[in-house]
Amino acid sequence: QVQLVESGGGLVQPGGSLRLSCVASGSISRFVGMEWYRQAPGKQQRELVARIGVTGSTNYADSVKGRFTISRDAAKNTVYLQMNSLKPEDTAVYYCRIMYTMYWGQGTQVTVSS
């Protein structure tokens, strides 16, 4: 049974920072790509925010480039999303996912508001 658990969300003022964590457990290989998605209020689709491949290569949505950084600690089966210079439009539920699979976490709420 594969399980992904996100944490680190919360309420932050514009310009602030948060670091999200996603811990993977169960029968998965350490060598998998991981992704962060988000679903904004009122939106039906989830948006890919960032991904990190098995080689450590990273990709970001244009809207977060230069502000967000995805990283991983393979020994801990954990992927992180460092979010800086947060904007109100970053408000969303953030989910992690194992690339190319149906395994998603339950999500963590990020609210950027003054």
Rg: 13 Å
Overall SS class? mainly beta
Percent helix range = under 10%
* Distance linking N and C termini: 40 Å
Q: Mean pLDDT, nearest integer?
A: 94
What's the total helix number? 0
Please trace the helix and strand order, writing H or E for each element. Answer: EEEEEEEEEE
Notes on the protein architecture:
Strand 7 and strand 8 form a beta hairpin. The chain is 0% helix and 48% strand. The protein is globular and about 40 Å long. It is mainly β and 114 residues long. It has no helices and ten strands. The strands form two sheets. A six-stranded mixed β-sheet has the order 2-10-9-4-5-6, with no helix packed on it.
In short:
The protein is mainly beta and 114 residues long. Helices cover 0% and strands 48% of the residues. A six-stranded mixed beta sheet has the order 2-10-9-4-5-6, with no helix packed on it.
